[in-house]
Amino acid sequence: MKPARTPRKFVAPVNWGALPKGVYYRQALEEELKPWLVKMYGFHLLKIGNLSAEINLESCAISHQVNVSLAGEPAQVRADPLYLPFAEKSVDACLLAHTLPWCPDPHRLLQEVDRVLIDDGWLVMSGFNPISLLGACKAVPFARRSPAVKSRMFTLTRQFDWLALLNFEVLHYSRFRVLPWTKQGGKLLSAHLPALGCMQLIVARKRTIPLTINPLKQSRSRARVPQAVGATRQS
């Protein structure tokens, strides 16, 4: 397994149109996200990366949505996603739509997201599935020229481990679009062989564990030692 952190520099696509069949990818991701957008609430939502900025989140109850990226349009905040210019616990939700595939340090990015998210904040991540037809194209020399194939691909299990270390609870995960070159993505195959979907989605929430012990609960739970029969207190 290759390390997640790499000195290699990646150039993220400026929009979904820069990827072959990228518009189909975006539409499929928006459709997969719909059931979860209505469950999110709060005041501030960060769309991190150029591809995240183009995802339609109109059905989300969080109205204040900010696009963050180093370059491209429609960026509203010019910043390195590895060093987000926001205070701790100031954001209610973060969207990383295919942001990890072009990130040189995914661990650092997730740590920054964890820092700015409030307790019980939402994290939505998507990417390409290495165990798919798109992932298999990495072994084909002429297919490696495609930006999607050249991108980094991480398995769901590996991403679950990263989220567990930051105490995120995964509420939903899915894989879809088995056939990456068609508009519908192979609906029949996606229904029966979802594990081979070229796209994957994770919806998680930041959970916190109280580190301070409640004195009242501690005194109640403390076992009382019964006094021995016939024992007297001596001065």
From TrEMBL:
InterPro entries: Methyltransf_11, SAM-dependent_MTases_sf. Gene3D superfamilies: Vaccinia Virus protein VP39. Keywords: Methyltransferase, Transferase. SUPFAM superfamilies: S-adenosyl-L-methionine-dependent methyltransferases. One of its GO terms (biological process) is methylation. Residues 75-125 form the Methyltransferase type domain. The keyword Methyltransferase applies. GO terms for molecular function: S-adenosylmethionine-dependent methyltransferase activity. Signal peptide: none annotated. It comes from the Bacteria. This is SAM-dependent methyltransferase. It comes from Kosakonia cowanii JCM 10956 = DSM 18146.
